[in-house]
Design brief:
Elements: E1 4-5, H1 7-40, H2 48-89, E2 95-96, H3 97-122, H4 129-162, H5 168-185, E3 188-189, E4 194-195, H6 199-213, H7 217-230, H8 236-248, H9 255-297, E5 305-310, E6 315-320, H10 322-342, E7 345-348, H11 350-353, E8 369-372, H12 374-388, H13 393-422, H14 429-443, H15 445-465, H16 471-504
Antiparallel strand pairs: 1-2, 3-4, 5-6, 7-8
Amino acid sequence: MSIDMYLGDSDRQNQSVSSIIKSRSNHYNNLHGTLVQFSYSSPFLSGVTYDSAKNYSQKILIPLIKAGMLLDEAVKESCEAFTKKYREEVDTVDLRESELLDKIDRAETLANQSRNLMSLEFQNEHPNATYLRNLQRIEDNHLETKRLLEEKLAKLRAFNSNSRTVFAKVDEIYQLIQKGINEATHSWSEVGRSYLLNEKAIETWMESINQHWINSSYYIMAEMAGIVKKGLKISEDEFERLKNYLDGHPKVAFYNEGIQLIERYQQLQFFKGIVNDFAWSALEENVNALLNKLNDAIPSVFKHMKFFPNLYFSNINVSFDATGYNKAINKAFNNFLLKSFTNGVNIPISNITNFMGFELKDFRGNQLYYRMSGLNLLFSSWNLYQNLQTENVGRAILHTAYNVINTSILVDIFTSGVQLLASFSGQGIVVRAAQLVSSFISSTPIGWAIISSVAMGTVVNIAYNNDFFGFRTAVNYIGDELNNVLKDVGNAFESGYSSLKSVWGW
């Protein structure tokens, strides 16, 4: 019997199998859902018979449905692998063993004919060299054709012998289904009106099915769908797995939703990095600047100490004016507070812009700063109070930081722009307006600070509420994490305080 491979028919068969399995998969899912509902979510259906039926569904029917789905998947994969294996190992066209044998025989016959003609030509007294070379070339071509055909025949026969391994998984799952069917058909007891199962054998059978199931596309697809449902709370590992899965499965039902989640997650991580980097950097610089100013403000202790040498006893007596030093400390600290209220501490905006890959400077080429002052503290405190009315603590803190920092950036940019326009010569309306605003800024700095903060704060708030560039999403996500951290810290503190009360008997 001839070994024949019709590649076109095989491709059409694969398409048909895929279509049938896709249609049958919906029925499997519906039946699986019904049995799961009956087995695990019907507490009012109880009794010996019902309990027996539920156990039967859990240990026989549901695993059998899974096995059926696994068999469909294995058949589909095996059919596709069969065709792929043929193209890779044999040829990209149809082949028939009988036709190959005929072509090999014909090539051999033609080669022999050329060889016979050369023998006849050598019998002449003056053989034609050109003619002989042509005959030799023809013989070589036929022999090469024969060799190629023999190689192709050998590949076809080897493929036919080894192709059974492609369907090994199909055979294995089919045997599992047969075992399940056999158990299902022989487990009903008319005497007890219930199902009597060989629990030990069934456990082994179920374990074999589950081992196949966790490696199946159904399980992985359900797992990926679960990741998509989790939304932005997915882990970095889950993000990578989902991304890789969607790259190879563009036709899955939740593909568009998954792609949107990936894009939002990437944006979130980007802004999360910006927020974290800037927050820690700003905190460090703010604290350092604050400590440096405090250090400069604190009076020297040696100015309030007096030294009296005693030559008789060869020692030195030291006196310290504690009252005077305390007054100096209070005066210096009050002066520092008053100055900080208006002057404040400058935090360079470059901390965030450099992280984003560019430098933000004013029209003079100077770095833009966020000024942490008493005035800004009042605005930020009021903003934090407002945010706490509608948000948790973590979100409120980051929302306030977002508003304060971005308001400061916009104020600096606008102020720089006004000063730049005011420096131009001319009498244009825009230039004159800029000059008036610049004059107001220089004459009433506190008034300008209040007006500009309110105006730019309104713009920043509108941008936040509309989630421009995904900042609101990022702030909410990170804020929730911060809120959880604060809760954990609070719980730990409360627990420690309770322990102390218990120890000391408070």
